[in-house]
Design goal:
alpha/beta; Serine Threonine Protein Phosphatase 5, Tetratricopeptide repeat; 7 strands; globular; binds zinc ion
């Protein structure tokens, strides 16, 4: 299935039938990186869970300052501007921004690990097996104690081991107490569920960047990430789909301080060591905020084999503090990340030319973006390709080529049938094509 789609995408964006090829070649020759990148303005909100250590406004200022510095150094582009919107209690944040009656809620609920009950994993078995097949058997075996590894010699056995691990890890976490109550107490769990945070981000309308002090449990039962469930099952930061937020191109960012501030032995990173308040703020600013901006803005994935200068490194063998040191000691951009950044730059060229009504240049740039984007990106590759196809369709329509516009709209719908915008656009094009036919009998 996956291979077919990738082949399909290659076909959709191949040069065959594409009249603007010369423009693409031209723009490649005179290419300037980030010529049309516009630094975004990000609204920042501090969300406070009273059970955990507070974050002050001056902490936030320091985090943002380091994030801006690191962004500029690592991506070679001006950093976004930050607008601090103040602080809010976590209860109010959820009350204002999470709609439990939305159709999406049931979907997230169906994939949630339910704390305090026996979870029936058989309902998720196929999904989990497909998920585990992203890795080689040996890679997954490495998460188990050495003397047990030989027992996990098939994906089915690994599935059993991973499920047992998720069950026992979450049971262990639920025995941890904060202010006399379980950290996963029913009255608190809704603010500490990753599934709820993800859905909240899908619905968020005004804050691009959330800084919080809460503990967030990794509870997507269908995707038991080994790096998460074999460590402390918590989420320290993410870049997530947020269609109503435009500053980061439909994505929002969460960064949390819990992992660095906690004194609960279970959650302490054994590699961390003593870290001052100031260092803690700088590390969060660089390692979480700027890193997540790299995901959201440039579509960079996590890397495990990039040089020490790379902000997208997600190595498990060093602490945040050690990783931060490496970034400072190895300034400048990562050469291996350049392909992602170049591809993203083409996309922004497309946006710029479209706005300038230079449609054939826009088509050429979007095509170049589609062809040069690596398959492994932050978020869904298929979804991003659908967006580009939709933009190309709009540009073809603007130059009066309805046939090309229809073909590209069909591509967008095929690649990402869940986006109503593409379906509406396709219907509109079909209607105008029909009117045209009727006018020319
Ligand atoms: Zn990451
Ligand atoms: Zn890199």
């Amino acid at each position: 299935m996956k291979i077919n789609i990738i082949a399909l995408i290659a076909f959709f964006f191949s040069a065959v039938g594409f009249a603007g090829k010369t423009h693409a070649e031209e723009s490649l020759k005179n290419y300037k990186l980030f010529e049309h990148y516009k630094p975004a303005t990000l609204n920042v909100l501090l969300v406070i869970d009273e059970d955990f250590d507070d974050i002050s406004e001056s902490d936030v200022a320091q985090m943002l300052k380091t994030a801006a510095f690191m962004f500029k150094d690592k991506f070679g582009a001006p950093a976004p501007e930050f607008k601090f919107a103040g602080r809010m209690s976590i209860e109010r944040f959820f009350a204002d921004n999470l709609d439990r009656k939305s159709p999406d809620f049931a979907d997230y609920e169906a994939r949630r690990f339910k704390v305090g009950t026996q979870n029936d994993f058989t309902q998720w078995r196929e999904k989990i097996l497909a998920f585990l097949k992203r890795w080689k058997i040996e890679e997954l075996q490495a998460f188990f104690p050495e003397e047990e590894r030989a027992n996990y010699d098939s994906y089915e056995k690994l599935y059993d081991g991973v499920v047992a691990q998720m069950n026992s890890k979450i049971a262990e976490i639920s025995r941890i107490k904060i202010n006399g109550r379980s950290i996963l107490d029913p009255s608190k769990i809704e603010y500490r569920s990753y599934q709820n945070w993800r859905l909240l981000f899908k619905q968020l309308t005004k804050y691009d960047l959330i800084i919080t002090n809460t503990f967030i449990l990794y509870d997507d039962a269908t995707q038991p990430f080994p790096h998460s469930i074999f460590t402390s099952c918590k989420v320290g930061g993410f870049s997530s789909k947020s269609p109503k937020l435009t500053a980061l191109g439909g994505r929002g960012i969460m960064a949390n301080t819990f992992g660095m501030d906690t004194r609960i032995p279970f959650f302490i990173d054994p590699l961390q060591g003593e870290v001052s308040r100031c260092e803690r703020n700088e590390i969060i600013g660089a390692f979480v905020l700027a890193h997540e901006m790299g995901h959201a803005l440039f579509k960079l994935p996590d890397h495990y084999d990039h040089p020490d200068s790379c902000l997208m490194n997600n190595r498990m063998d060093i602490s945040y503090a050690q990783g931060y040191r490496l970034l400072i000691d190895n300034p400048g951009t990562c050469p291996k990340c350049a392909i992602w950044m170049t591809a993203r730059s083409y996309f922004w060229d497309g946006e710029f030319y479209f706005e300038q009504k230079e449609y054939s240049k826009a088509i050429a740039a979007y095509m170049q973006a589609a062809r040069s984007t690596p398959k492994n990106i932050d978020g869904s590759y298929q979804e991003y390709m659908a967006l580009i196809a939709y933009k190309i369709s709009k540009a073809w329509f603007a130059v009066g080529d309805v046939a090309q516009a229809r073909a590209r709209a069909a591509t967008a719908v095929k690649l990402y049938p869940w986006e109503q915008l593409y379906k509406d656009w396709q219907a509109e094009l079909e209607k105008s094509a029909k009117l045209n036919d009727e006018r020319q009998p």
